[in-house]
Amino acid sequence: MTFITTLVRGTSTKEDSITGCGECQTSCQSACKTSCTVGNQECENSKR
Amino acid sequence: MIYQFEKDNIPVVLDVNSGAVHIVDKMIYDILEYYPKDDPKLQVDKEKILQALKIRYNEKDLRTAMDELDHLIKEGQLFTKDIKRGENFEHVIKALCLHIAHDCNIRCKYCFASQGNFKGENLLMNFETGAKALDFLIENSGKRRNLEVDFFGGEPLMNFQVVKDLVSYGKKKAKEWNKNMRFTITTNATLLNEENMDYINENMENIVLSIDGNKETNDRMRYTVNNKGTYDLILPRIKRMVEKRGDKPYYVRGTFTKFNKDFSKDVIHLAEQGFRNVSVEPVVASREEDYALGFEDLEEIKEQYDILEEAYFEKKGTKEEFEFFHFKMNLQKNPCQEKRALGCGAGVEYVSVTPEGEIYPCHQFAGNTDFKMGSIWDQKDLDSEITETFKNASVDNKETCRDCWAKYYCSGGCHANAYHENDSLLHPYELGCEMEKKRIQNSIIIEAKKRLESDRS
Prior knowledge:
Structural class of chain A: little secondary structure
Strand content of chain B: 15-25%
Mean pLDDT of chain B: 92
Distance between the termini of chain A: 25 Å
Radius of gyration of chain B: 24 Å
Number of strands of chain A: 1
Low-confidence stretches of chain A: none
Number of strands of chain B: 16
Mean pLDDT of chain A: 74
Number of helices of chain B: 15
Structural class of chain B: alpha/beta
Oligomer: heterodimer
Order of helices and strands of chain A: EH
Helix content of chain A: under 10%
Shape of chain B: globular
Largest sheet of chain A: none
C-alpha cells in the first residue's frame, strides 16, 4: 500500500474459533504486580 | 471505533476493536474526517471527499488512499465491529500467587503489604498449605495446560526450603495431570546467594528483582530494619543474578513515587548497570501519603515517558540497551480479543493464597476480609459472589471505559487500584488511566519508528 503501513494486524472476528484458549500468561504475574497491561502479552496458542 | 493520534510526526490510526494499528499518510487523516466514525455500514460519499480535498491533494492519490481504506475495511482491519466475548470462554483457575512468607526482612515505606504481613501476623507458609494450594490450582484448571505459580511475599527467600519443596511437589503433580506448571519468584534480592540463585535459574521461568533506581531513589523508600538503605546490599546481588541468568527471562522492577517523579533517570541508571529488562511503575498509595502521586504530577510523568522513549533509541545497539516493560508491545502474537477484554483475570482465573490458606482475588486484596473468597481447606465454601463480581468488572461493564480508545490495552486497569481509589471495581483509577494511555502511545510510536527504519533500509 502507498499511504498506509499496517504495524499491528488486528485479531479479527474470523479468528473467533481460536480466541480465549487461556494458555497465555496472567498479565500481572509477568513483571508488574501493581498494574494491568495486556497489550504486551504474548498469545501462546500454537495454532495461530 | 477508531482512534487517531500523531506523535513525532508519525500519524497513527488504531482500530480499537480489532487492535489493528496503522501508520498513515497525513492525507488519510483528512479523508477520515468524512467517514462516519461508528457506522458499521459506512456510507461514504467518495465524490464529496474528492471535491472537498482535491484542492490540497492529487485526485489520483486521493482515489488510491480511499481504495486502501476500503481494503482495510474489507480485511477487518478498520472500523471493525465489537464482538461478543465470554460465551465460549471457560473460566478456570490458571494462575496462583502464593504468599510464601507474610514477613519481610526489609522495610519499604510504600509497601502495600504493610512490610510483608498484610496487616496480619508475621507468618511463613508451611509445605502442607502450599501443596494444598497447588492441588487446588491443578484441580480447578480444567483443560488449561499452562499454569503459573508466583512465589510472593513479604520476602519469599525467607522461606526458601518450602519454595523448593513446593516446586518439587508441583512438578510431580503437573506431570501426573499433564500440565505445564511455570514458577516465578518476586524478591527484594537481599537474601540471594550462589546456591539459591542456581536453584532459581534451574527452576523458575522468571524472576522479578526489586530495586527502585539509583542509590538516592532506592534508599529513600527501601531500607533495612535498622533504617539503612538497601541499595549497596542488593545491587551486587542483582548484578550477579542477572549475570548468572543468561538468556532466561527476568525483570528488574522498581516503583516511582512523588519523590522521584523524574524516574527516567532511575530507569536509565538501571540500564547502565547492565539490566536489559526493566519495569518501573507508579506507586499504589492512598492520597494522604506524602509519596502518593496525584493529577498535579501527570504532565511531569508524561514527559518522563517521552525521555524514556528517546533513551530507548539512544541506547539501542549499545551495551546499555534496555527493554522497558510498559513499552513492550507484541506485534506478531498479540493477545486475542478475549484476553484483551478479560485483563488480569483476578478473582476469576487468578487468585492468591495466604500462609493460612485463605483465598483472595489477588495479592493486593489479601488481608481484606470483604474479599476473602474462602479457604483451600474447605473449597466447597468458595464465595462465588466474589468471583461473579470480578467477572462482571470487565472492561465492557465499566462506564468510563466504554468510549476509551485504550480499553483493550489495559482491559479496564487494575481492580485493586480502582477499589483503593474509588471504592468500586467498576470505576477505574483515572490517574492510572492517563499514565497508561501515554505509555501505550509511546510504545506504538517506538514500534512505528522501528518499522519505518527497517522499511527504509
